[in-house]
Write a structure and sequence with these properties.
345 residues; alpha/beta; eleven-stranded mixed beta sheet; four-stranded parallel beta sheet; 33% helix; globular; binds threonylcarbamoyladenylate; binds magnesium ion
């Protein structure tokens, strides 16, 4: 059990507050403490990546299994190159196209990266985030930041400072409140350490965009949905690791109309008040749902709002979250991947 400490939250919505928060965050990070801060994808829980003790604290605060490596955040190509042993021309091309931004490149690690960051493995994931706050902090620190998403292991990533407060209050000294994150899903993770580029985690930089830049087919080690989007594919046991998961059970359904949805729910023996619906075409009428979230019908907007909707369902005590089935298209792949894991039992 960790001793509880006072958690301070600092806003950054004007230049003076921003500059003050940067100084506070830098001071904490320099002294080996943890800071939760916004990136453009989700909030991160940051530590000095070159300080093994500080990074070890990330694992204990999150309850993260020690075999899961942490992404290292940099703010220049020169800094990225100090973290890796090789910098292939593919990395140059991808960095030119997508950095700063939501793409993590996995490369052979350099000796300056401690074992705890890479979970003892030979590679390190590096990312240059586009959010100005984390960029300013990295620049002023002069060292890279190890930062996983700022949530307890296996839970939904935070896209608001309030999400971080709710789960990590009393465990870290400082949370930076940058409002709602812009992308809303975690970065695309691409392994460049193997002979062929390999997708380890889909994100809002889709494979089609990667392939345009590197002119080659990207292999994939993530499980992707079957064509038919059927429930069997969404629940295929063994292949899915439950992750990014809300507390409530989550199902992905298609419904013709409101009576059809009501019939599907009745089969679960629940009342509609125990159910929250996340829709993207129209609000189901005629029933008293526990809650309804209507997200935009395009992938960027849907991704931006998804985690806040899931957090909200949990806070409201939903028993079941029904997500309206999504298009099976490359730009929806990351969203489908997260929902599939959230739906795994
Ligand atoms: O957008 C993001 O990537 C956010 C923000 C904070 O940057 N970070 C994030 O970190 O999502 P985390 O720890 O929640 O997820 C990192 C993922 C994990 O699936 C981890 O296994 C993978 O990246 N990863 C990190 N380093 C790796 C490596 N060396 N080899 C393979 N996978 C790696
Ligand atoms: Mg995470």
């Amino acid at each position: 059990m960790l001793t509880r400490i006072i958690t301070e939250t600092l806003p950054i919505h004007n230049p003076d507050l921003f500059a003050w928060a940067v100084r506070q965050a830098v001071a904490k990070l320099q002294s080996g403490e943890l800071v939760a801060l916004p990136t453009e994808t989700v909030y991160g829980l940051a530590a000095n990546a070159l300080d093994a003790k500080a990074v070890a604290r990330i694992f204990s605060v999150k309850g993260r299994p020690t075999h899961n490596p942490i992404i290292v955040h940099i703010a220049s190509l020169a800094m990225a190159q100090t973290c890796v042993r090789q910098w292939p021309s593919l990395a140059d091309k991808l960095a030119a196209a997508f950095w700063p931004g939501p793409l993590t490149l996995v490369l052979p690690r350099s000796p300056i990266i401690p074992d705890v960051v890479t979970a003892g493995g030979p590679t390190v994931g590096v990312r240059w985030p586009s959010h100005p706050f984390i960029q300013a902090v990295i620049r002023d620190c002069g060292f890279p930041l190890a930062a996983p998403s700022a949530n307890p292991a296996n839970q939904i990533s935070p896209t608001l400072a309030e999400h971080v407060q709710r789960s990590l209050d009393g465990q870290i000294p400082l949370i930076i409140d940058g409002g709602s994150t812009e992308v809303g899903l975690e970065s695309t993770v691409l392994d460049l350490s193997a002979p062929k580029p390999c997708l380890l985690r889909p994100g809002m930089v889709p494979v089609t965009a990667l392939e345009l830049v590197i002119g080659d087919v990207v292999e994939t080690r993530v499980q992707i949905l079957d064509e038919d989007q059927g429930k069997a594919a969404l629940r295929s046991p063994g292949l899915l690791r439950r992750h990014y998961a809300p507390k409530a059970r989550l199902v992905i359904w298609q419904w013709r109309d409101t009576p059809d949805l009501a019939a599907q729910i009745a089969r679960h023996g629940l009342t509609s008040r125990q159910i929250h619906v996340i829709a993207h075409t129209r609000i189901p009428q005629g029933t008293e749902w526990g809650g309804i979230h209507l997200l935009p019908r395009e992938p960027e907007g849907f991704a931006r709002g998804l985690y806040a909707a899931l957090h909200h369902c949990d806070e409201a005590g939903a028993h079941l979250i029904v997500v309206e089935a999504l298009p099976f298209e490359p730009h929806w792949q990351a969203i489908l991947d997260r929902l599939q894991r959230a739906a795994a039992e």
